[in-house]
Please model this.
Amino acid sequence: MSAPELPDNPARWPADPYELLGVAPGVGRVELRRAYARLIRRFKPEHHAEAFRRIREAYETLEARVRWREAAGDTGDERVAAHAAGVSWDIPRRTGPAAEIDESHASHDAETTGNRAALGSRNRSVDHVVRGAWRTAQEGDIAAAYDELRSLLARHPGDEDVCLRLYWLATLAPRVDAERDPCRWLLQGMQRTGPGGRLAEVYRQELESNPHEARSERAGQLLDRPAAASQLYALASARWRGASGELRGCRELIAGDLDRLRPRLSEEFSELWLRLVLLALDYIIWTFACSQDELVQRLLGEFDRFQHLNLSLAEQLGRLDLLLELANAWNELRMKRDVPPQLIELIPQSWFRPVHEIRSELLDLLGRWVADPMAGVRELRRIDSVTLNHLDGVIRSLAWMPRRNLESADACLRTRRIRDFLIVQEWNPYSTTRLRLLAFCAVEDLCLEDVLDAVHHAAPHEVKSIRDYLQHLNVIGLLDKDLSLRLMCRAQQIFARL
Model:
């Protein structure tokens, strides 16, 4: 097949990966790489992100098919190899010159189903039975619908739609099949479709929400099956997320999965491999002190091996530096006796879980601080600045609050009240006055940024006297660096809005 002259707009590109890359079915690994390299020289990721994504996706899809063909014996036809391995590839039907190539592949399917007309008729009959069974379930007879679909699957093993519907019926009504867990239907279908498609998407959601399934050996075995690199990444990501409730057990699971995936990803898909290593570090870095953890040190060494990728992963490596700093601070923090276990447990979870998943635990902690502000401030003062900055970012995500409009009439009155409060305080000692400021912020529904804004945006005839007075007492500097006061004010605002 001649190389295509792709238009600049990826929306106009063909959906078929062969046409996109300009290769014929049965393409070899070397020719496939050449086609991929030719296109990414034109569509560089830093300038054509969407185009590069499409090219990469097409390459990974075809590369997985090449791997299937090689595993099944080099027949020169990847559909024959896929059939030998029990896999069906759903390649969109094409028109034009490529149609003749597709027809040659269709002949192999006809040998196993009789002919293409018979195949279409069979699919229509399957759809008819599926729709009838689903109507039976909607009418309330789930057991009958379940038995009908099981019988249908026995005649058409691995049918994606039937497996998916059996999964949902078994999930909604567990009593219909007490001996078989619903995930087995997904896995049975994936034996045919591979770790992609609708079944894989639902199974990944199951992994994320079901720790038992995430830790199961059968979930790990899926990583041994031939698949596109991006599919393996998505599967490992969902499995680790679901298993992360118990970090020490999760550590061993992740280490085993990395050993499984290293030979397949580290050299040929090095950037995706490093992203997987970064994801692994999110979870395992919390189990031991970083400098003493052999697994962590070995994973960090992967970035020395692929230094040429540091530029493309600059943002992710910056996040890694922050993670290492936070993890080291957290290890020192948990050695202190006067830091509550609730906070110690929350910090790792707040790093790798979305805020909505830890909302309840976070509100419990903030509520305790708001109920006793003096104890809350004392507790926060024992925490290092790295951890406080992280907690501040998490709390900001919990309840977004816009900054005040300093030009409105209400804001002008509020600003004057803030300045009047600041100017009459003695600020000596600071620790006593900061508690009065915290109480003032609770009454006025203020965060510490509002207080500092009131100082910095004072009217020209007021600014000199206020700033000179506060700077003379070093108050502005103290307020600006007072992270514990900043967090307490924010916690008060959040509870005022609940």
Notes: The domain at 10-108 is CATH 1.10.287 (Helix Hairpins). The chain has a mean pLDDT of 80.
